[in-house]
Amino acid sequence: MTRHRGAALLLAALLAGCTITFNDAEQNEEAPVKPVWDLRNSHRIEDVGWPEANDSDLYHVVAQPGELKILLPAGVVIEPPPEGPITAIPSRPPDFAEDADHTQLENIVVNYPTEPVRDAARRAAELARRWGIDGSELAVWAARNAEGPDLSVDGSMTSTRARRLTDDGPFLSLDARARSVEESYLSVTVSWDNERPQPEAEHPA
């Protein structure tokens, strides 16, 4: 599975209504959701507190402000904004990928709260600046959808070029979609190239 196909499946899973959340006591009784996902030196499923009982390819968490921090290389920190929760969806290789390491994460898609196009554009520009991502495509998207969804081919959606955070680390990109002037969606995708040899994990003390 490619990184882009994996991310698309994650978004489809969100729209289908996954059910594991911070407040889902039954799902997380034996494996409480970790408040910090430290992915700076490794990206194993246990780094995100993947429940042992969850044998699917996806793990779905809704985190309110102050409930989750995702730590990535190059000083990147993803966390819920004060305005509302994020939805974080880690994935691992599917079962049919027989040669894949199923203990390693493949993608994480993080969805920000639904908001007007102007606010999503402002948030996207700030995150792109903070994380060193080329945000030019986001600025074009904001202008084209400022007065309503651009109905041309892919006009209401855009994705940035992915930035590789370190030589052997993950890729980071931003995606935006507008359904109306008052309803747009911003997400960040973290992807790993698991076909490359991975370094030994070095967790800070």
Describe this structure in words.
With 205 residues, the protein is of the alpha+beta class. The protein folds into two domains: 3-95, no CATH class; 117-191, no CATH class. Helix content is 20%, strand content 22%. It has four helices and ten strands. The protein has helices at 3-16, 25-28, 117-131, 136-144; strands spanning 36-38, 61-63, 69-71, 77-78, 86-91, 107-111, 157-159, 163-164, 171-180, 183-191. The strands form two sheets. Strands 2, 5, 6, 7, 8, 9 and 10 form a seven-stranded antiparallel β-sheet that branches. A three-stranded mixed β-sheet has the order 1-3-4, with no helix packed on it. A hairpin with a 5-residue loop joins strand 3 (69-71) and strand 4. Helix 3 (117-131) runs antiparallel to helix 4. It is globular and about 45 Å long. Residues 1-31 and 197-205 have low confidence and may be disordered.
Structural class: alpha+beta
Number of discrete helical segments: 4
Report mean pLDDT, rounded to a whole number.
83
Q: How many E-type strands?
A: 10
List low-pLDDT spans. 1-31, 197-205
Rounded Rg: 17 Å
The sequence of SSEs as H and E is HHEEEEEEHHEEEE
Question: How is the biggest beta sheet arranged?
Answer: 7 strands, antiparallel
Straight-line distance between termini? 34 Å
Shape: globular
